[in-house]
Amino acid sequence: MLKQYKTIKEISGPLLIVEGVADVKYQELVEVELPNGEIRRGQVLEVAADLAVVQMFEETRGATTAGSKAKFLGKTMEMGVSPDLLGRVFTGAGQPKDGLPPIVPEKKLDINGSPLNPYAR
Fold first, then answer.
1. CB within 8 A of 103, min separation 6: which ones?
2. Which residues lie closer than 8 Å to 29 by C-beta, 6 or more apart?
3. Ordered DSSP codes for 4-49
4. What's the pTM value of the predicted model, to 2 decimals?
5. Average pLDDT over the chain, rounded to whole?
6. Which one of 3, 44, 68, 120 has the lowest number of neighbouring Cβ atoms within 10 Å?
7. What is the mean predicted confidence (pLDDT) over 41-67?
8. What is the pLDDT of residue 121?
9. Which SS3 state, helix, strand or coil, does residue 73 take?
10. The pLDDT value given to residue 29
């Protein structure tokens, strides 16, 4: 179940502090709905007690502590992959930047990769 909070405590540059959160995970994707209805995306950088620090992928201009809502999506960022990726140019959000059509993915992979085994380091 998606969790949505109207408890954005502070906005400082690309960071949002959301209070009163529960069951939020590190690197979880977040959609922030601005008072004008615009949706912007971000990612959880840190969780401590009932606070979450969210780094926005887009600018925070227009976001206010009153009227903005943060929805925690319960998943990390994934990107569709296939051999068609070779030679293509993408934005940081994985959207084609070269004017060619979107790729048809064969599978989706977590962009953060698998955790490293501390012993193998």
1. 80, 82, 84, 85, 88, 96
2. 41, 42, 43, 72, 73, 75, 76, 77
3. EE--EEEEETTEEEEES--S--TT-EEEEE-TTS-EEEEEEEEEET
4. 0.78
5. 90
6. 120
7. 92
8. 66
9. coil
10. 94
Residues of the chain with pLDDT > 90: what percent? 62
> Which amino acid appears at position 103 of this protein?
I
Residue 33: name the closest of 7, 67, 1 by CA: 67
Residue from 35, 93, 92 nearest 67 by CA = 35
Question: And the tokens for 69?
Answer: 């809502």
C-alpha 93/C-alpha 82 separation (Å) is 17
Torsion sign across C-alpha atoms 55, 71, 61, 18: negative
**Biggest CA pair distance of the chain:** 49
**Residues 11, 40: contact at Cβ < 8 Å?**
no
